[in-house]
Amino acid sequence: ASHTIFPACKRYMLLCLAMLSACSGLRIPTPLKMDPSDWAMFARDASRTNASSEVVTPPLTTEWECDITGGIGNGSVLVVDSVLFVGNLRGELHAINARTGKRIGWIDLGDAIQGTPVIDGYAAIVPLSNTEFSLVAYDLIEGRPLWRRNYGDLEVSPLLFAQKIFVGNTDGAFYCIDRTSGDQLWKYELPENTRRKGIRSSAAGSGNTVVFGAEDGFLYALDAENGSRRWRCNTGGSIVASPCIASGNAVIGNLSGTVSAVDLRTGESRWQFAAGESIYASPSSSGNNVYIGTTGGMMYALDAVSGTRLWNTDLGSVINSGAVVAGDILYVVTLKKTLFGLRTSDGTIVV
């Protein structure tokens, strides 16, 4: 992927002017060449670190604009082999040349794509809500669905981990799915879920463990092979953000404004930090630091091991998406559609 096309720009810098053709269709002319620097799923890797392997240095300029005719949910764009993929709330998956902004094609797959698809070789695995088949694998070369399955309303970004797909639904069921057939391998249901509290937290994975948050306020860790529960930890507030895994801890923010770090191996609470405002944004991680934003517009840098606050910067508007780390710059977008670049060392605004 070109260093000039950067996921930190998120959804706002890439959506604006060109008109869609009247007829849909999506086929990639040549097979995608996957590279370690590509962003093939939400937050780039299974640990959900949201950290780029490339350095992106300010100042930034707008390279192109493209209208995808619909809003974007809680996911982000993907870039694989200089092809940008993005889904919208109309259920459309768009592919765009990341260097030129020229649309390659688009396909209507259902009602709403809330999260981020996974690009798995020649296939795009797409989560959907409010539709009959909520998980679709689409062949990008042949231009046709490979399989469609109903796993309930999905408002998360699927995790590709240990050669399997992991997703949770809004009714509180979490699934492990065969990536080639779409068949269920195992299912875990939230315990004592009489009020049907759901899972809107995208899972992260490390070792043989998958971890996710739920609206019941607990962080759950499951065995990736058989779905048995390894532990759960009460964070004290509903969770909709994805966890990230940093320094051996699963780090998560909740709607009560608390950031929690839980030992991934034992489930023991390592530390908590009171951010003061609700957290919808997933944390990002680089080195021993984690970065997380709040609805109050505050961006925090915390020590991943101790939870010590390293710095905080007020960006003046709601932060509801994860920041992207690129070298020594942290890129953050607010609901005022403003892109900020902060120095990772001290939080100074440089963009």
Q: Please, could you describe this protein's structure?
A:
- With 351 residues, the protein is an all-beta fold.
- The protein is built from no helices and 28 strands.
- The strands form 7 sheets. It has a 4-stranded mixed β-sheet with strand order 1-26-27-28, with no helix packed on it.
- Mean pLDDT is 92; it is low at 1-22.
What share of the residues does DSSP label as strand, in percent? 35-45%
Mean pLDDT: 92
> What coarse outline follows from CA principal-axis ratios?
globular
Q: Output the strand order for the largest sheet.
A: 1-26-27-28
Helix content: under 10%
Distance between the termini: 22 Å
Q: Key features?
A:
four-stranded antiparallel sheet, mainly beta, 351 residues
Quick summary:
The chain is an all-beta fold and 351 residues long. Helix content is 0%, strand content 38%.
